[in-house]
Amino acid sequence: MELRHLRYFVTVAEELHFSRAAQKLNIGQPPLSMQIRALEEELGVPLFERSQRRVFLTTAGRAFLARARQILADADAARLEVQQIAGLDAGELRIAFTTSAPMTNLMKRVLTSYRQRYPRVTLTLSESPSERQRDALAERTLDIGLLRQADSAPPVAGLSFETLVDEALVVVLHQGHALSRRKHLSIADLANEAFIMHPHDVGTAVDGKIRAMCERAGFTPRVVQEARESTTIVALAASGLGVAVLPAAVRCIQIEGACFMDLSEPDAHTPLLLAKRRDDTSPLVQAFVAMCREVAGSLHERGQPPN
């Protein structure tokens, strides 16, 4: 029996509705139902009576609810005590992220979980190009970077980089575009298209990756428009101004007319990296790194996409 099982149980018991409880816990309803059934099997008694319309606590469920709440309260108190001892009950953590990172399930879940687990830590967040993040880390004006890095990027002395997720690249175009009717797209199919990309001074590793893929396919992308924000690029592509290639996390941008298509190239992906200083022993940084690994592992274990 794990604490998360108790949290799942308490949330369902308070909501008396599996769908609402799953939404509150930010997990799918089927996995939540499986976890509750596993808990009941471990205890050897049913905790809920289920019907098509309602969910009720059994007598055993009501008794277990009081115990579960007390166990969770004791666990929270113990966590706060050790956080105070370890220096995790206060302080500031400076985190920068590349433009598409906040759209990923990974970053959203990491930030939510970190705030819940360490509520007294101030998270100072900023959007910053990957190159500037590396400079800021080296200059010690930044603690954590969530960035993308070109394959050819030279190593940076004193910094460590860890891949959290390897994200697919997708083509963004107008839903009426002739290419949108194809089942498969390769980068070569875009040779005669107008491209929308980030400006050079933004310093995104994704654009460098796209240009390299285009060159290997025998052409140089014809850039007709530049925009700093991924949301703006998606909107411009949806309007028919051109095509764009972006990390798959942009699929969450709901803009009328936008069509997202996978690329067939095996290297059509871009890793999201966690960067930090090698000599940084801050408990706040170590806890954030551990949280990123925990969430990335959970997404992989559940077979859920990072975006």
UniProtKB/TrEMBL annotation:
PROSITE patterns in alphabetical order: HTH_LYSR
InterPro entries: LysR_HTH_N, LysR_subst-bd, WH-like_DNA-bd_sf, WH_DNA-bd_sf
One GO cellular component term noted in the UniProt record for this chain: protein-DNA complex
Any Pfam family: LysR_substrate
Top-rank taxon, per record: Bacteria
GO molecular function: DNA binding; DNA-binding transcription factor activity
Family recorded in the similarity comment: Belongs to the LysR transcriptional regulatory family.
Protein name: LysR family transcriptional regulator
